[in-house]
Write a structure and sequence with these properties.
The structure holds two protein chains of two kinds. Chain A is α+β, with helices and mostly antiparallel strands. In chain A, 27% of the residues lie in helices and 29% in strands. Chain A has a single domain, classed as 2-Layer Sandwich (Heat Shock Protein 90), CATH 3.30.565.10. Chain B is α/β, with parallel strands linked by helices. The chains are: A alpha+beta, B alpha/beta.
């Protein structure tokens, strides 16, 4: 159990867990982190903690963390241009066997349809451009949109496999 | 990410472990490949047996290294992929690009 507080701004090298709540069927966590790759692992650990509280199996944990890592890498690199003065906000929810990950950056956004298909033969040897493809593979639903403050948000949803959700 | 290198004849075997992810392991792979080429080792096996996670940046760096080594007339091959890394390579069709081996002797004999 924890109390929900207003989200503060991260210092340029930090990642802050600003809220963690657990009620009957709902687990939530919120973080704000400076745009540094080193902070990604802190968000990963928070998601892993929620997954374990919710009884996710090991495979689900792996793919959820992988999707979160891709979203955060995009937010830090492309959204915020690795500017540590710009924040990435992370909202994690597990409710009724559904995991929702929302990652917000302060960038101007992009058109997902403009990103080339990384599986096309002409793109196979490109060194980049696979992050969103992987997010879509690892999650059931991935949507992009603007945030109220003018940034970009990605919302990713995965339904947990209830047949083996009690495995570790 | 941790790494260790050894040479078997003219072939450089690079054993990797831990995470190959953005900002850390991805850059390290490039350095290891550059070092192999500087040492005159154009045929390289990446042993991913100890790798626990790889992201799109790590995959992208492996692809870039594949291109670099191939342009030098060499070969970059992969060994000891976990089922999850195999899945990750399969969904992006990269499994068709890399030669992948489970057995080191077989990998060494393939050059």
């Amino acid at each position: 159990m924890g109390s929900k507080q207003p989200i503060s701004r991260a210092t340029t090298d930090s990642a802050i867990l600003t809220a963690l709540m657990a009620t009957n069927n709902k687990l939530t966590a919120e973080l704000v982190m400076a745009s540094r790759f080193e902070n990604i692992e802190i968000a990963e650990r928070t998601l892993l903690d929620l997954c374990r509280r919710a009884g996710c199996n090991g495979d689900e944990e792996y793919w959820l963390v992988s999707a979160l890592r891709e979203a955060l890498a995009n937010a830090v690199r492309h959204g915020n241009g690795q500017d540590p003065n710009q924040d990435v906000r992370v909202f994690l929810t597990i409710e009724n066997s559904t995991v929702t990950i929302r990652v917000e950056d302060e960038g101007e956004g992009f058109e997902p349809a403009d990103i080339p298909d990384p599986t096309s033969p002409e793109n196979l040897l490109r060194p980049s451009g696979r992050g969103i493809f992987y997010m879509r593979q690892f999650m059931n639903r991935v949507e992009f949109g603007p945030t109220p403050s003018g940034g970009t948000a990605v919302v990713m949803v995965r339904d947990l496999d209830q047949t083996d959700s009690d495995q570790s | 990410m941790k790494s260790s290198i050894r040479d078997v004849g003219d072939i450089r075997v690079i054993e990797l472990s831990g995470k190959i992810t953005i900002g850390a392991g991805d850059v390290k792979i490039r350095e290891l490949i550059d070092q192999a080429l500087e040492d005159g080792k154009n045929d390289v096996i990446l042993d991913l047996g100890g790798v626990t996670a790889i992201d799109s940046s790590g995959i992208g760096e492996m692809v870039a290294c594949y291109t670099t080594v191939t342009k030098r007339g060499g070969h970059l091959k992969l060994m000891h992929l976990s089922p999850k890394i195999t899945d990750i390579l399969q969904v992006t069709q990269l499994i068709t690009v890399f030669d992948v081996f489970d057995d080191e002797r077989e990998a060494l004999g393939s050059f």
